[in-house]
Amino acid sequence: MNRKIKLILLVFLLTLSFSCTEKKSIEKVKSEPELVVTPKTDTLKFTSGIRAIFQDSKGNYWFGSLQEGVAVYDGKSFSYFTRNDGLSDDQIHSIQEDKKGIIWFETQTGVSSYDGTKVTNHTKTKNENSQNIFPIQSNDDKESKWMKSDTDLWFEAGNNPGVYRYDGQQLHYLAFPPQKNLDPKNNLFAVTDISKGKNNMIWFGTYTGVLGYNGRDFTIINNETLGLDRKIEPLHIRSIYEDSKDRLWIGNNGIGILLKEKESIINFSKKHHLIHPNSKRNGEKSPEGTLEHVFVIAEDHKGNIWFGDRDAGIWKFDGKQFQNYTQKDGLTNDFVLSIYVDYNKELWFGMADGKIYKFDGKSFEKQF
């Protein structure tokens, strides 16, 4: 009889132990951060364009606007940050995260960060409410000469002819060395886009050309390199992107897409008859079915290249064929400012009218 009682007690204890272990396992799974957007209970209040989209390591989505600061969405509601909260400017160009989990904002006039508690401005600003201004090292200093590492964050430097580099400890301003072959007046205009590539290369797009930096030397791509006449086809670079096949895509505001593949450089838009024959390249609106004013370029997990055009909506290139999405396909606007691939490999699109779309593989669903 005693043996039966002991056996029953042993079975009971084993069952209880397994139940507790299973409960702890379930609780552990539940505590992991979700990387999906839950049913929306709030609406984004931005009315200006969405210049930047970013998902942080916790799964929150950040949206940078053209005039109204930045918003963060936690899956249920939005929080907003503007110059009144310490941002250097309300026009947001890009959003990044460092290895410490700090969120960084590149604005029209400088660089700011958010540590989860407060916004810190790292550049000089006219905003009197920003009390946390950190000094920037210039490359006139010995500590701020041109160099790079894989964990660096890079930012545009407003109207200055250079960039900001954050090395994990300090923000440095690095002025580009003068390049006579890039601009006849020996001046480099401000950076318009930055793309990290392979082989330790980082690309900087400017109004007058592209500079590539590998940690040692600069590579220059200008009108002369491309065989373009400055008077007829002036470079006005708005976007650059190096894809998984080491191809460099250069988006212009007027002459379309330029494609650098190994030593070959072609006008991709012209080759595929996506430049209108009567295009004046003077800023006038381009007709539908063209790819002339390209403000953003991205690549999805399948290797498709996506282009956001100023006048002709969203373009997808699968390596052989093109597909064009416009207001006829349900978009509220044909001016695309940002494209972003999140942790779930889903594509997000920010439009000039403040709307945000997500592509499900077949159609576009308006998120906000």
Automatic annotation (TrEMBL):
Residues 1-22 form the signal peptide. It holds the Pfam family Reg_prop. It comes from the Bacteria. This is Diguanylate cyclase. Keywords: Signal. PROSITE patterns: PROKAR_LIPOPROTEIN. The keyword Signal applies. The keyword Signal applies.
